[in-house]
Amino acid sequence: MAEGAFTEHRPLLFTIAYEMLGSATDAEDVLQESYLRWSAVDPAAVEHPRAYLVRVVTRQALNHLRAVRARREEYVGTWLPEPIRTAPEVSDDAILAESVSMAMMLVLETLSPAERAVFVLHDVFAYTHGEIAASIGKTEVTVRQIAHRARRHVHARRRRFEPDSDATREIVQRFLRAAATGEIQALMDLLAPDVVQISDGGGKVVAARRPITGRDDVARFVLGVIRTSAATTRVEHATYNGMPAARFLTGGELDWLVAFEIHNGRITGLYGIRNPDKLHRAETVHPLDRGGHLPWKP
User: Fold this and answer.
1) Which architecture characterizes domain 166-279 according to CATH?
2) pTM as predicted
3) Rounded distance, CA 265 to CA 169, Å?
4) 2-157 and 166-279 have identical folds
5) Crossing angle for the helix pair 2-21 and 49-73, to the nearest 10 degrees
6) What digits encode the pLDDT tens for the residues 85-99?
7) Where are the domains of the chain?
8) What region holds the RNA polymerase sigma-70 region domain (predicted)?
9) 26-35, 156-165, 219-228: which has the highest mean pLDDT?
10) Would you call 161 exposed, middle or buried from its count of C-beta atoms within 10 A (0-12, 13-18, 19+)?
């Protein structure tokens, strides 16, 4: 019975943990710890299993987040969230797609652990301030203050993007064709003037250590990467974090992947992950769920 309840709510629990931590590996660790705690409880004594499990996962994720923050400050190069392969239907839920996008996950990284937990639970999953207060061990008044502060911070920094769709995939295909053939003007036409390219190699593989901004510099960087890529590299299209993405495989192994942020028909962001520690689970498709709450209205 305990296992059945946990399995039923697992997609929701994973989604909460991932959005709080930015790492599928850490989210799975949190779920394992939470399951051990759940299995030690008499399920018959729990009136609302989902609410109980959300509370346990939230507290475990908060503890985990506080522990990993110092490690991320020492990260070599630019840190990006561990990418998760998502089913195309995730894009049908605009709130969910935005909440797991690379851009939003980077904004969430700038919040304090408490702010991140409150924002994720309230603005993405629509839990009430009272429910969140019970989950994180603070008063409802304090949670309201945290929510206001976090929302103001996120709204000032959020980037608009279009989820994975036939239209965005076509833009990515045109971009890859232009890069492969060296058509610099065609490449530039697809990039927004203020486009940002961010690479994450974790100090383990070659990658740009700092973000590259501006259409000219990003186009030159992309062409340089393509020129130095192995002739045996194969490109596959996929969906990661609710965004159109390209997987680059060399010798049959995933070498790097790029998620594309697209707005108004132009590429505004490229998020390239090469850190092998973040790619080793990139084949798994993660079912995501917001738990059936009412949609959040920004």
Assistant:
1) Roll (3.10)
2) 0.91
3) 11
4) no
5) 30
6) 998 888 888 889 999
7) 2-157, 166-279
8) 6-68
9) 26-35
10) buried
